[in-house]
Amino acid sequence: SLRAGIVGLPNVGKSTLFNSVVENGKAQAANFPFCTIEPNVGIVAVPDPRLNVLAELNKSHRAVPASIEFVDIAGLVKGASQGEGLGNKFLSHIREVDSILQVVRCFEDNDIVHVNGKVDPRSDIDVINLELVFSDLDQIEKRLEKLKKSKVKDSQSKLKEEAERSALERIQKNLMDGRPARTVSLTDFEKESIQHLCLLTMKPIIYVANVAESDIAEPGSNPHVREITDLASELNSGLVTISAQVESELTELPLEERIEYLKSLGVSESGLGNLIRATYTLLGLRTYFTSGEKETRAWTIHAGMTAPQAAGVIHSDFEKGFIRAETVAYEDFVAAGSLAAAREKGLLRSEGKEYIVQEGDVMLFRFNV
Ligand code: GDP
Hints:
Largest sheet: 6 strands, mixed
Distance between the termini: 24 Å
Number of strands: 12
Strand content: 15-25%
Bound molecules: guanosine-5'-diphosphate
Helix content: 40-55%
Shape: flat
Number of helices: 14
Structural class: alpha/beta
Radius of gyration: 23 Å
């Protein structure tokens, strides 16, 4: 499944958030066919009310939500990009995730020491951004040196290396001004040519503004949140507000009391849902469903994936042997009430290899083994 790495300076609320995520994951574990959780990895279900509707219509034995893995990457501090040992280890952990969630402290509390002496989310963001920028600059410099000495002969490889060189030089220029690689516009060919480098500042990042519980109903009333809203769009980053404290308190409450507690704070759901939705939006993710008597299940794909590619998310054999997919839109399925009724009404389509899977498609794959 998708991996999101949680980073941030010390004392901003990372562990509080991560532990709540893990507790939440444990509470849902009964629904999961996969419930092994490593110490620094928490698996959570992607909340989706459509899942249970489908499961009920099809009388499925179980409903399996899509999931996201949260990885706690504590320890990214100033100087990490220079450090040979630990620092590098943190950076290599970041290289392995699909997106970065940077927890940024926006709550005031004199009892909790801030590493820089005061709550200053802009500076927190700069510190971590710079570490990632330094690491990328270092890598790009080495790669450009190598490209200079390259002796490739065939024109195809030359073209590719030319695209890579040009992209890297532009990225390098931006990085020197502190601007992440993801802010540089690149052609698809250029993107492909630099993919092997796994640049850290190319990764989608969401700032998770950790606010006091009194601010969650109206995050805009917090001046720190207002301050980093512009910064987020400048740096091509997402922004979500959450209260790690509230998330943590929620895990202590029995399920039936959680809604009451949230209501008393002026919100209708936990911040985790927002965080997951923001990740979906930022990464351009979509959900499709498979549904039958055995189970109804949500699958995560990237926007623009074809039917065989989407089938490949379930199993690579499904992609290789793909013949066609019986497809019905979620709303059509629900309106018809059953697959048979949808078929009768002509709402069930037979789609081939070129079909681009749409958000909420309910799919049945036909394939050769
Ligand atoms: P980490 O070092 O980033 O992992 O930070 P922790 O999660 O350990 O939090 C540091 C301290 O801040 C702990 O004492 C938390 O209880 C406290 N803390 C975390 N989130 C909040 C919050 O939203 N409000 C307040 N007042 N304290 C918080």
